[in-house]
Amino acid sequence: MPTSSERELVVLSWGGPWDRALRDAVSDPFEAATGIAVRHHRYVGLSIPGELVTAVRSGQRPPYDIAWTNAVAALRAAHDDLCEPLSSNVVPNLEHLHARARPDGFEDWPLVMVYAVAYVLVYQRSIFGDRGPDSWEILLDPRHRGRVALYPDGNGIHAVAQVLGGGKVTDIPDDMDACWSLLRRMRSQVSAMDYSGQLGEHLRSGRLDLCFRALPNAIGFERSGADIGWVAPAEGVPDTMDCLWVPRGVPADAGRWASSYIDFALSRPVQEHWCRLLGTVPVRRDAAAPAILGPDSRTPRSLDDERHLLYVPDSIKMAHDTEWRQTFRSIFTD
């Protein structure tokens, strides 16, 4: 194992159930195994904090030793040369991962995908009972006008909108008229476009009927006392991936510890524990999927399970992210 003079790693982390899962499954066990303290710096949203980008580009020491980000942000960082390559000598668990764990278009590993997240439909049990809606079409039902929530800028919704609009997921990104047409129809339905930390109270108070959410957020709503359920509708669910990476410019000792932290997160028992807490699909080939992704849930149980997956590669999302955000904003602010 490497030695560190600082004896501390700083990890860029989201808040809420995401942060608790990282702490319980990865950071605390890593501290216990190595004696290296792990401090989480919490942020909100999918964009990389500006202070990290500024520090790397100016040659300063990055404020975080490890970045935990969405794949789109991580891929952009990799294309902008903000990442230190991961070596299989220091991260041997790279050899045990599914092909989707490795970013497209790179000879090395500037980052590693650590699990896949399904997006699901969250619903109020007081309205729909225990079963929940069977189709994403419910998002257009006029009875729920002004009582639907999406993510800011429509993050993640494109494949669902494409299918509901009569198009094909395989036509993304070349022909997305069906997606944009459907979102224009949905505009009056949507009253909230927030990240999930802001939505828990809206759900508990009954101000929202339906939410398009990542499954870990749905699980977090349930655990916080909201009387909600979630369902993977019959048309299928989109997914995304989250990543771990080491910012360029982290000092050598801290960088070796950061790589060891990432390797630890990719070990089989940690993958299984982490994904069980979040409700996500492991990238490690021999890791078991969490029980919540059972066959009755219609959610993918492995990265090879595409029966209910509305799949758009993260590399395509990254390449078109700015364009899609602008189009979404023009629809919802016109």
Topology:
Elements: E1 8-13, H1 16-34, E2 37-42, H2 50-57, E3 66-70, H3 71-79, E4 83-84, E5 112-124, H4 125-128, E6 148-150, H5 158-164, H6 177-186, E7 190-193, H7 200-204, E8 210-214, H8 215-223, E9 228-231, E10 239-247, H9 252-265, H10 268-278, E11 281-282, H11 314-333
Parallel strand pairs: 1-2, 1-3, 6-7, 6-8
Antiparallel strand pairs: 3-10, 4-10, 5-8, 5-9, 5-10, 5-11
Concise synopsis of the structure shown:
The protein has 334 residues and is α/β, with parallel strands linked by helices.
Protein model, in words:
- By secondary structure, the protein is of the alpha/beta class.
- The chain folds into two domains: 8-116 and 240-293, Periplasmic binding protein-like II (D-Maltodextrin-Binding Protein, domain 2, 3-Layer(aba) Sandwich); 117-238 and 306-333, Periplasmic binding protein-like II (D-Maltodextrin-Binding Protein, domain 2), CATH 3.40.190.10.
- 35% of the residues lie in helices and 18% in strands.
- The protein contains eleven helices and eleven strands.
- It has helices at residues 16-34, 50-57, 71-79, 125-128, 158-164, 177-186, 200-204, 215-223, 252-265, 268-278, 314-333; strands at 8-13, 37-42, 66-70, 83-84, 112-124, 148-150, 190-193, 210-214, 228-231, 239-247, 281-282.
- Strands 1, 2, 3, 4, 5, 6, 7, 8, 9, 10 and 11 form an eleven-stranded mixed β-sheet that branches.
- The longest helix is centred in the C-terminal third of the chain and has 20 residues, at 314-333.
- The N and C termini lie far apart (56 Å).
- The model is unreliable at 1-5 (pLDDT under 50).
- This is ABC transporter substrate-binding protein.
- InterPro entries: SBP (IPR006059).
- Pfam families: SBP_bac_8 (PF13416).
- Keywords: Signal.
- It comes from Mycobacterium asiaticum.
